[in-house]
Amino acid sequence: MAKRLLLLAAWAVAGTTSDGTIDGELRERLADLERLVRNQQELIHGQQQKLQTQESRLNDMELHSPTRSAADRRLAAALPPSIYGNVTNISRAYTSEESLQGALSHVWLLLCGALVMFMQAGFAMVEAGCCRAKNVQNILLKNLFDVCIGTLGWWALGWSIAYGRSEVKSDILVFGEANGLKVSFPFDHTYYVGNFGGTGFMSAYSDGREEPSDKMMNWFFQWAFCSVAATIVSGGVAERVNFMGYALFSVLMTGIIYPIVVASTWGGGWLAEVTSVGYTD
Questions:
Q1: Of 258, 190, 211, nearest to 180 (Cα)?
Q2: N or C: which terminal CB in the chain sees fewer CB atoms within 10 Å?
C-alpha cells in the first residue's frame, strides 16, 4: 500500500504542466490517492476497535480465570478501570460489561437531557400564548437568555456549588480531593468546594496521563434542569419585569440560588440529614 501511494504521488508530480497547472489526468490520480488514504484510515480505525475489543475480552478472562487465586482476582477487580488498560498495581482495562454499561448510561443521559431542554420550548410557547402580542418577543428573548446565561452560570459557579464539593471533618478529608475553597454549612459540615469554571473533570496520574470521568455527562444532565428552573420564573413575572432586571435574576438563579438548593438536597447536603428519613423529593 505504501509503495502504491508513493507511485501515485510521483505520477502526480510528473503530471504537472510547465506553467504549474494541473491537467485532468493528474486530478484523477489525486482523487485515487485521496481514496486510498481514506481507505487506509478506515482500515486502521477498524483494527484499533478490534484491538480494544480483544483487550476487553482478555481482561474478562483474566479476572475470571480458574488458574488465578481468589486473592489475585480480588486484587485485580479492586483496581480502578482505565482507558489505558492494564497498568501494574495502578489500573485495569474496562470489562465488556463495564464498557456497555458506560455507553448506555451516556446515551441515556444525553437523551434525557435533550428531552428536558424541550421544556424550554414548551415554556416559551405557554408564556407567549398567555401574554399580550406586544410582549411576545420580550418573553421569547428572556427564555433564550436563560439558556445562554444559564450555561455560563452553571459552568462558572453552579456545578461547583451543587456537586463539586468534598466533605471534611476536623481538616481530615472524607472523600474526594481537597482542591478548592473551604466553606462551612449548618450542622458542623465543612466542605472543599472545587470544579469552578469546568476544572476538575479529569483525574491525572503521577506520570501526567489524564483519565476522564462521568462528571461531564452528569454536568450536561444537571445543566438542563438548571436552565429550565430559571425559565419557570420568567412565566411568573411575564409583563412585570424589564429585561435588564430579569437578566440579573437569571445570573443569580443559575449561578447561586438553584445550586445552593441542589447542594442542600439532591447533592447530599445538610437538609438530607435533618431527619432520620432524610430529604424526599
A1: 190
A2: C
